[in-house]
Amino acid sequence: MRASDSHEVSQLNELKIDVNALTFTAHYVLAGDIIMCEQMPIFGGYAGGLEETTIVDVATTLNAFLMTQAHWHLDGPIHVRWGITTARESLAVAGHCARAIEENTQCLLGNQYYTLAGPCTVMCLLETAAQSITDTASGREVVSGVASAKGVATNYTTAMEARFMGEVAHAVAGMDLDKVNRMLDELVAIYETGYKTAPKGKTFNECYDLAKLLPSDEYMQVYKEAWGILNKLGLKY
Amino acid sequence: MSNEPKVGVFESYARAISGPRIPENEWDYKIIPQTASRIKEKYGIKMDKKKMIPTDEKLINNLFRAGMEMLVECGVYCMDTGRVIKYTEEEVWAAIKTAPKRLVLGEGRDAVVLEGRRFDESKPPIIQGGPTGAPVAEKDFVAMHEAYAREPIVDTIVDGVCQTIYGQDPRPNTPFEIYAVKNEAMMIRLAQARAGRPGMGL
Fold it and tell me: Which residue of A223, B105, B115, B156 has the smallest Cβ count within 10 Å?
């Protein structure tokens, strides 16, 4: 690791820390490293509902710059039932927290991505798009992902989801906020009824031609289909 | 603003061993939910989940005040010492006012500048691509990360977790954990170099 890499420390749920985290943060501080403090508040967890989780999210974001001397903060509000950051409630917590912090400070903020569906599925890309739109249009400085299929299955992540996250962020930056909110509401409504049957998708090895390190034709078709849906909702890249 | 020195990791630890002692279950099941609920009522905060990004300035600012109050009133619980690290609002402000506003991730021609952007700006955020802590098979680790580094729109890498190290399980707090972590960093540097972006941030 170089000093110009982000050195991670995680806060614990909710508003908690352990001595081990403080100890290696002390090393980061003394080594002059860039410090990225991460935290994933749980909607439906200890704090409670939407507003309470957002209040805790704001509190822990501020704490990152105090306790761990963070250079930037990486959020990740997660839904207690689905374990994802792309649920409507997770997006609302992230969007409200980012606007509250951005409006009152100049702190640097990011958000991380955990989708329910896996690679090579339209649902995974639409989930990714919804969060990228939320993060970009609420003023965050970094989008970081994607841990597809909830980030728990081996090799169920590919660079195509990151490409989509990036293209959507570039496309939505600067768009009128009322238009963004209408688009987001429609976009989330497309996938949120499918949580119980979310497709796990395919592995990296199945999605890529490993000899050439290029995405499969099948994934390119899925990718095109997902962009087609976003085009119809009013987003172009 | 007072002239108190900025609180950081060392002072936080000092408070973690001297602050008020509280049982952990009281923190989790009483202090956090009850304080959040009371502060929500105090500021009259009501969110509409059909509107993911707020436009109401009063709501936005009340959420900030509520979060600040939550942090100052509760503090942060240290699980190992069973004590609460408390701060004043002045200390929180001192930290956030002096937090970095601009930094450089990566080196040389592959470096990117991380600096503030507003919600309505046409400047996009930094695109950090990678498995984001998801497990990756050891044999595919370099190739998968190289695929991210090859994406022109990706600015920096957020790595996955190498599932094994020479076939061994890198359990936490074991020598194999250190072995795996050091190898992960080296393999990502290799992946970035193979993509022609050796200075890319991680």
Answer: B115
Please give the Cα distance from A62 to A65 (Å, whole number).
6
Of A148, A154, A213, nearest to B143 by CB-CB distance is: A213
Residue A134, chain B, CB below 8 Å: the answer is: yes
pTM: 0.97
Same structural domain for residues B67 and B139?
no
Show the DSSP H helices in chain A as ranges: 19-31, 50-67, 88-104, 122-137, 159-172, 177-191, 204-207, 217-233
Alpha-carbon span B119 to A137, nearest angstrom: 5
Which tens digits make up the pLDDT trace of A128-173?
A: 999 999 999 999 999 999 999 999 999 999 999 999 999 999 999 9
Domain of residue A17, CATH code: 3.20.20.460
Q: Does the distance separating the beta carbons of B67 and A59 come in below 8 Å?
A: yes
For residue B140, give both structure tokens: 């595919």
- Same domain? For B132 and B152 the reply is yes
Q: How far apart are CA B51 and CA B28, in angstroms?
A: 29
Distance CA A66, CA A221 (A): 46
**Between chains, do B124 and A169 touch, taking CB under 8 Å as contact?**
yes
Whole-angstrom distance, CA of residue A123 vs CA of residue B7: 44
pLDDT digits (tens, 9 = 90+) for A62-100: 999 999 999 999 999 999 999 999 999 999 999 999 999
Residue A1 lies in a domain: no
Chain A, 33 to 72: residues with Cβ < 8 Å from chain B are 34, 46-48, 50-63, 65-72
- The token duo for A200 is 């796990």
- Closest chain A residue to B80, measured at CA: A18
Q: Within the 69-128 window of chain A, which residues sit less than 8 Å (CB to CB) from chain B?
A: 69-72, 88-89, 91-92, 95-108, 110, 112-114
Identify how many contiguous H helices and E strands chain A contains and give both numbers. 8, 10
Smallest CA–CA distance from B17 into chain A, residue: A19
Instruction: Tally C-beta pairs within 8 A across A and B.
Output: 354
